[in-house]
């Protein structure tokens, strides 16, 4: 159910403040294909730290999680 509809349907929710908690991405698999592709393209041209910061700014995702995803990809690419 959407938050707006919940508030409209429940008069108690209309009385004051509402706290909305949003869970951020915690696993590289939750980052999405577009974010991982952008990270890959940028790390081909920039240091990983800078690439992760740019992708985080662009997508709103956690920079540390993006950095860790980039490290994991780099390690996979270097494995024999």
Top keywords for this entry?
elongated, mainly alpha
Topology overview:
Layout: H1 3-9, H2 33-43, H3 48-59, H4 63-78
Helix pairs in contact: 2-3, 2-4, 3-4
Shape: elongated
Helical proportion, percent range: 55-70%
Total count of domains:
1
Low-pLDDT windows of residues: none
Mean pLDDT, as a whole number?
Answer: 84
Give the ordered list of helices and strands: HHHH
- How far the N terminus sits from the C terminus, by CA atoms, comes to 48 Å
Largest sheet: none
Per DSSP, the total helix count is 4
Radius of gyration: 18 Å
Question: How much strand?
Answer: under 5%
Number of strands: 0
Structural class: mainly alpha
What does this 3D model show about the protein?
With 80 residues, the chain is mainly alpha-helical. The chain has one domain (25-80). It has four helices and no strands. The longest helix has 16 residues, at 63-78. The protein is elongated.
Summarize it.
The longest helix has 16 residues, at 63-78. Helix content is 57%, strand content 0%. With 80 residues, it is mainly α.
